[in-house]
Design a protein that fits this description.
Blueprint lengths: L1 H21 L2 H21 L4 E9 L7 H4 L13 H8 L2 H11 L3 E7 L2 E4 L6 E4 L9 E7 L5 E9 L3 E3 L3 E4 L3 E4 L2 E7 L12 E5 L2 H11 E5 L6 E8 L2 H23 L1 H35 L4 H37 L17 H23 L5 H48 L3 H35 L4 E8 L9 H26 L6 H5 L5 E6 L4 H5 L11 H16 L6 E5 L7 H14 L4 E5 L18 H5 L11 E6 L2 E4 L8 H5 L2 H13 L2 E5 L8 H6 L4 E7 L9 H9 L5 E8 L1 H4 L31 H12 L1
Parallel strand pairs: 15-22, 16-20, 16-21, 17-19, 17-20, 21-22
Antiparallel strand pairs: 1-13, 1-14, 2-3, 2-11, 4-10, 5-6, 5-11, 6-7, 6-8, 9-10, 12-13, 18-19
Length: 802
């Protein structure tokens, strides 16, 4: 029995949850439509990708043949292979960049097909080459083929980050043209045809590193099982052919790279041998040439003849040295004679023995000019202009002779150094002649060593070449690149299903978040969970009429507002059947609608044939009294003793026969003290005897003490709780008031509820059929509130004043 009750409660909770969310079905519908529309656009605009896979087996040990095993000193070339390391090797940037470089994958050719870009790859009608453009350049442009022509128009050049140029450049096939992005050459392919001009082709050149990184993100490398060494390669790409070429080339490049690494020692050894062999061969030839030259130069076949020759040559060099030294001494003497200022007017010596004819000629010219000058001075003075010109010429000639002599001295010193070196060499040859035979023996010994090394390297080169020829690959392709022709992505049904879930989840999440973060009263369930009696729910008045008027209960009214007040009237009448007549209307905080509730309930009881008195004891704001245009006389006048007869402040038949109202009257500076007056109890006792129900509109309990004071004289305190307004955290205070007996009896009413009306609780089967009656029995309309005329009250007030 308990399980069945629990199941029913769970079903009821689910039903309530669904009913709460179904109130917002237009938002759910809109969200689903938007999300599904976005998913549809995503499917249409996302390139279709395909998945290709290949498998390769890694051999754990290198196969060695008998002939390679014979070279036991080369066993370091054998090694075991770690499969996990090879998995990482397949993802290495070097291999991926090499694959991109070989297949030229850094250049893309795409066309626009509706919302989606289609990759042409090898089906492109043209191929673009970039002569002279470095690989580190990235850019894009559009190529438009001209019908029935062999020319292409290039336009919309872009190179990040700043180059954007919409310039048209016409280029013929196989011609190189300069563009804003560099040199470009267009080459037609086998796919070129007459209808290739229909759609412009976007040509994009990317960095090889970026393309390799992109493929690395799409490449999946894994083992097919823990107990084997078969590696599975899977690649997702928009082009089936490109994916297959990439995987096949990757396996080929991996195999080549593995062989290079495997034979790295042997290759380096062979490279070293090939580099050393020409050098040793050159050294051998040099040794042979040196021996030949040494014997020829030193005349080793006749040692004595060589010694006699060296003695003769040494004597000749000594005589030449003496002659050059004499020339240097004469030149130095003439230079000193020229530099002597005391002999400036003397003639220079001639026929000094210098072999330089230029100096002798200059000396002769100088002496001739000096003789002319001396003869001219004999007939004139030194201040003669001609003499002065001659003096200048003589000084210039003396300087020229000095410079020429300096150059001659330098030349003679060089000759002297060379002659002394030759003399010393001859002397050395004479001294080294006995050791020449010993030197010749050392050359022959070096020749034999180089010859042995040359033969050894030739033998090792042949051995390494045999090892390289016998090295086998460590891989075996199990299956080349292949796969299904069905698109791998986008998964249409999965995306649409996710869009549907997201479309439902967005408004659902917003509603759930709003309800979770909402600290106000959310609905009837928050009040039903209290131990305080619950009278009913007043739906929110969402109509224009409800926004303009506060009195919505009408005679024969059949809308949800009227029905809700009838339900509350019935519940309140049942609760007050034990002689409770005075009902206080209050709230936990302002703005809950207690005045609205009190007035409409009073009207509902009046329509039911009850005689009701409605008191405005909110002496501070007097909200209720505004609807009778603030009569000058009211309960304030009675409580402060200005009026003795309470009947003078009662507005008879205010809105309906049997519905009387007592306004608050003029605003009092001490409302709390007035409520503590014994006249209030006297007034309520009088009204209790004259009316079926006495409704009191009071202040909220959390602001002032007025409601608590009036509550002592009331039989029932009705707390009006406004949905989405009253703080839900204050509801436990109602139970505490009930336990502390601050009020004799407590009940609650939920006002301005949106849930019950939107879920169709009241429905339209019984409610809303027929026409509402908006007329009072006397024929006056009360769609809005008809205020009481002030004349009668003024008359009564005048009497009271008297």
């Amino acid at each position: 029995m308990e399980n069945r009750i629990t199941s029913k409660n769970e079903d009821f909770q689910i039903f309530n949850l669904l009913a709460k969310y179904m109130r917002y079905w237009p938002w759910f519908m809109l969200s689903v439509v938007v999300c599904c529309g976005a998913a549809f656009l995503y499917i249409k605009s996302t390139p279709v990708t395909y998945k290709r896979g290949a498998s390769v087996m890694i051999k754990e040990n290198s196969d060695m043949t008998d002939i390679s095993a014979a070279f036991s000193d080369k066993n370091q070339f054998q090694s075991n292979v770690n499969v996990n390391n090879e998995i990482e090797a397949f993802k290495s940037p070097y291999l991926l960049q090499e694959v991109v470089r070989r297949l030229n994958l850094n250049v893309d050719y795409t066309i626009k097909d509706k919302l989606r870009e289609v990759e042409l790859y090898s089906q492109s009608p043209i191929k673009v080459q970039f002569p002279g453009v470095p690989d580190q350049e990235s850019f894009s442009f559009y190529a438009e083929l001209i019908p029935d022509d062999t020319t292409v128009i290039l336009s919309r050049f872009e190179r990040p980050p700043s180059l954007k140029m919409d310039r048209n450049i016409k280029v013929r096939f196989n011609d190189t043209v300069a563009t804003p992005v560099g040199n470009v050459m267009i080459v037609p392919t086998s796919y070129f045809s007459s209808d290739s001009h229909q759609i412009p082709i976007k040509v994009t050149k990317n960095l090889i590193e970026d393309v390799a990184d992109n493929f690395a993100g799409q490449l999946e490398v894994s083992l097919s099982g823990k107990q084997n060494t078969v590696i599975i390669l899977e690649l997702t790409d928009v082009s089936i052919e490109r994916a297959e070429d990439f995987l096949n080339t990757l396996m080929m490049v991996y195999d080549e790279n593995w062989l290079i690494e495997k034979n790295k020692v042997a290759v380096n050894t062979l490279k070293f041998i090939n580099e050393r062999l020409p050098l040793i061969e050159q050294e051998l030839g040099g040794i042979d040439s040196n021996m030949e030259q040494y014997k020829t130069r030193n005349l080793l076949p006749d040692v004595r003849s060589a010694a006699s020759f060296y003695m003769k040559e040494s004597g000749e060099y000594s005589g030449k040295v003496l002659e050059v030294r004499n020339q240097i001494s004469i030149a130095e003497y003439i230079k000193g004679y020229l530099n002597d200022t005391g002999k400036a007017s003397d003639l220079l010596p001639t026929n000094t023995g210098l072999t330089n004819s230029a100096i002798e000629s200059l000396i002769g010219q100088y002496n001739t000019l000096q003789l002319k000058r001396n003869g001219l001075i004999a007939n004139s003075s030194e201040k003669n202009p001609i003499v002065m010109d001659m003096d200048n010429s003589l000084r210039s000639m003396r300087q020229s002779i000095v410079r020429t002599i300096d150059n001659l001295v330098v030349t003679l010193n060089l000759q002297l150094s060379n002659l002394r070196a030759q003399e010393a060499k001859m002397t050395q040859n004479i001294a080294s002649n006995p050791g020449q035979e010993k030197h010749l023996s050392s050359i022959e010994r070096e020749q034999k060593i180089k010859e042995s090394l040359y033969l050894y390297l030739l033998q090792k080169r042949e051995e390494n070449e045999m090892l390289l020829a016998m090295t086998m690959s460590n891989t075996r392709i199990i299956s080349p690149a292949s796969g299904s022709n069905s698109p791998f992505k986008p998964k249409k049904y999965v995306i649409l299903l996710m869009a549907l879930m997201v479309g439902c989840g967005i408004p659902g999440g917003i509603i759930w978040s709003r309800d979770t973060l909402n600290v106000t009263v959310r609905g009837k369930k928050d009040l039903e969970s209290l131990s305080v009696p619950f009278l009913g729910v007043i739906p929110s008045a969402n109509t224009k009429e409800g926004k303009k008027n506060i009195l919505l209960v009408r005679d024969k009214g059949r809308d949800v507002i009227n029905e809700s007040f009838r339900i509350i009237r019935t519940n309140l009448d049942t609760m007050c059947s034990k002689g409770m007549k005075v009902v206080l209307y209050t709230s936990l905080e302002p703005g809950s609608g207690k005045t609205f509730t009190a007035m409409n309930l009073a009207m509902s009881f009046a329509l039911g044939g009850k005689k009701v008195a409605l008191l405005d004891l909110d002496l501070r704001r007097a909200t209720l009294s505004r609807f009778v245009t603030f009569p000058e006389l009211g309960i304030n006048n009675y409580l402060n003793g200005q009026i003795e007869d309470a009947s003078w402040i009662i507005v008879k038949d205010c809105f309906y026969p049997g519905f009387d109202m007592i306004p608050s009257g003029p605003v009092s500076p001490n409302p709390t003290e007035l409520l503590l007056s014994s006249r209030l109890k006297t007034l309520l006792d009088k009204l209790r005897s004259e009316y079926d129900y006495v409704f009191i509109d009071s202040t909220p309990v959390d602001l002032v003490a007025d409601a608590a004071i009036v509550g002592k004289f009331s039989d029932l305190a009705v707390f009006v709780i406004r949905e989405s307004h009253t703080d839900r955290r204050k509801l436990p205070e109602l139970e505490k008031m009930q336990r502390d007996k601050k009020f004799k009896n407590i009940a609650t009413i939920l006002n301005a509820s949106n849930q019950d009306i939107s879920t169709g609780k009241y429905g339209t089967y019984y409610v809303g059929k027929g026409k509402d009656t908006n007329m009072l029995p006397n024929g006056s309309a009360y769609g809005g509130i008809t205020p009481v005329k002030k004349a009668g009250l003024l008359t009564a007030g005048t009497k009271s004043g008297k």
